[in-house]
Automatic annotation (TrEMBL):
Residues 15-354 form the ABC-2 type transporter transmembrane domain. Its main location: membrane. It is a multi-pass membrane protein. This is ABC transporter permease. Keywords: Membrane, Transmembrane, Transmembrane helix.
Amino acid sequence: MIGALIKEELTRSKEALFWFVLFPTLLTVILSSIFGNIEKNLNFNVGIFGNSKIIDKITENLSDSNQFNFIQLNENFEEALLSGKVDVVIKIPDNFDSQFQRSLILSKTNLFKPIRVELVYIPEKDESKITKDVISQILTTMDIEYFKVSSSWKEAKVRYVEKTSTFNYYEYLFPAVIVMSIMSVVFFGYTPGISFLKKRGVLKRFAVTPYSLNKFYLSYTIIAVIQVFSGLILLYIVEASVYKVNVFNHFQNTIFYSLFGIIVFLALGYMMAVLFKNPESTVVLGNILFQVFMFMGGFYFNVKNSSPIISFISSVIPSTYIVDALRIPYGYSVYKNHILVPSLWLLFSILIIFLKRNKINDL
């Protein structure tokens, strides 16, 4: 049975070979080319690490323009930067205000020492580079702008030091393509395949033969898993050889959440096949879920801090947490609990399956 299904699903079907094995790798190449150097016009999200009443007054004035969003960071500022919560971090030294006042008094003497303020940004991200350039100009003229308000024209220079944090978009994209491969097999192959077999009456005929219908489902599911891993093997080779992604970084984490994702989406796909008798309905619903899970799940850019509606949808779909869990080894994870929401989807799917499959008309 398994051999016959392999021949049918892979050997005879050129479409299956392309969509489930070759397409994930092709999509990696396309998206890496498009998103790797894309420029975005975004508001300036700036993290503040440290305390300064002088800088607070500056940021208050800038916040009025609605173009600047300043976020006070108490710890793990690099995590906030890598996750996309902020584009740049201003690292303020201790006792900045007193140093600034001292620098002001000594600005015309040989005892003058500039204040060093660190700007931490990600050079590979265009929005981070642009924000860094804007903030650096503000810091350069900060003394003039602040003391104009104070009716003082003396200058106390602020020197900023640029520091970078590495962001690798290929590493960020790699987990997304893994989950996209799983969803492609489920929504465009596994689920419609079962629906078409139901419509043609094949499953009812199996039910009255000595061959167990459960064995058929098991064999069909194994074929879907083989299709997923066939695509992932090629994806791993391309990511490691072409894009230099360390695909074996915390490999046990990748394997666990990949298998977890396969189980969750196969259960969801099978539930759809059980609920809908019309194959066209499963195709339409599969396309809708694929697009929602992909773009709302933060596959290609972080959506956690987007509009309330998008953030809410992102927080209740399983793909968000599976992709985010696969990003843990690369330092781009932004969520905490990666098991709860996908498990709820899994349990719900299993419940519906058991409630519906006891009816012969749903075979």
